[in-house]
Amino acid sequence: MTVAFQGERGAFSEEAAYRLLGRRIRVLPCETFAAAFASVAAGKARYCLVPIENTLAGSVYENFDHLLENNLHIVGEVNLRIVHNLIAFPETTLKNLRRVYSHPVALAQCERFFARHPRVEKIPAYDTAGSVKLLASQRSPGAAAIASQTAAAVYGARILARHLEDHRENYTRFLLLSKTPRVSPRANKVSIVFSTRNIPGALFKCLSVFALRDIDLTKMESRPLRGRPWEYFFYLDFAGHVKEQRCRKALDHLAEVTNFLRVLGCYERAR
Q1: What pTM was computed for the model?
Q2: Engineering a disulfide at 174: which of 16, 18, 74, 254 sits with its beta carbon 3.0 to 4.6 angstroms away?
Q3: Helix, strand, or coil here: 84?
Q4: Residues belonging to the active site
């Protein structure tokens, strides 16, 4: 079973893939999110695992767009607790630390660490795990990276400090995507995308089909409808199963008041 993800070996996405599917999978690192989606469409990987939102940084908007542009199906999800580790090689210690590389989001989530070490320079990089890979090739004294525990293991580095993140309630939600739809018997969550006419009360009518049936909405996001200014696609997650009578009726009702409706997946909600 091959799982594609964006980033270098040791990325948080790889860690999330192991959490969801176990250690026996093969992983396929991809340079971009678009490449990860394309690898599944082309048959190079059975699945791709992509981040969709973080409890601190918010939604990963690019991947909402890829969900619409690619005919892939959500078949699972996992929530990963993000632990930022300070990773280095033997040439670097906390005493001679002068530079720290990582993705800009990771650096921003560790402000307290840098406030305690004002002489340490923050250097943005394209990827958290890629920063550790860079250190492995350079072996420069005084340089470290912020990345996952998996990245340290992949590149044979050591962890100088754990839990650099400012907030412990730092989670990223990842979606598992497949070319083939699959609905687990334990599925209890549905993701959809729809668009509606830009007229007064249109969105209210769409959301009311769920409120009238006491269906719990767990996430809503809007993205621009390209080529039609000030019109939007709405992404919606709700609790339930597509075979439940109330959910079927809600989706049938929604189809009557929208211009476009697509079910992205019915899957088991992450714990």
Answers
A1: 0.92
A2: 16
A3: coil
A4: 172, 174
